[in-house]
Amino acid sequence: MDDTKTGQDRPAAGGAYAQASSTAQAAMGQTAGAATSAKQTAAGAVDQAKEQASSLVGQVKDKAVAAATDQKEGLADRIDEVAQSLHKSGEQFAGQQDWIASAIERGAAELGSLATSLRENDVANLVAQVKSLARRQPALFVGASLAAGFAVARFGKIVAADVSHDDLPTMPEVGHGGR
Prior knowledge:
The protein is mostly helical. Helix content is 85%, strand content 0%. The chain contains four helices and no strands. Helix 1 (3-93) packs antiparallel against helix 2. It is elongated and about 120 Å long. The termini are far apart.
């Protein structure tokens, strides 16, 4: 065997090993840099998505509060109208059935107070008041909810009774083959 040839190959092999090692380290450095860059890009995208989601939630919340505020005003007007109607009906009992007139007047005054409260308070405050009432007086809250449900159902029946058959929407007739 020729040891001189093997000896000459060793320094060349050591140089190739050093070169391969430095190439591998350079590749690892590039990979680490690319990974860091990808991580930063992903973090930026996540932050941007969070900001957009937060903005969207804020817009939806603002629109919901605006719609509730508009509905609140309309509801307060309708409650005021009912209170005025009750007040007028209570006047019919004055002098004949004073206890009935007094009860009707108290109810009308409470409805007027409710309408004023609706107008003066914002939606968040009203929700907080309802939650507080539900926690403090659960039986009263359930009873009031049931009474309100019955009142709405009764009002719906009255409104439906005033609607004629001609006012209702019609469904198009569907043909049955060649008949």
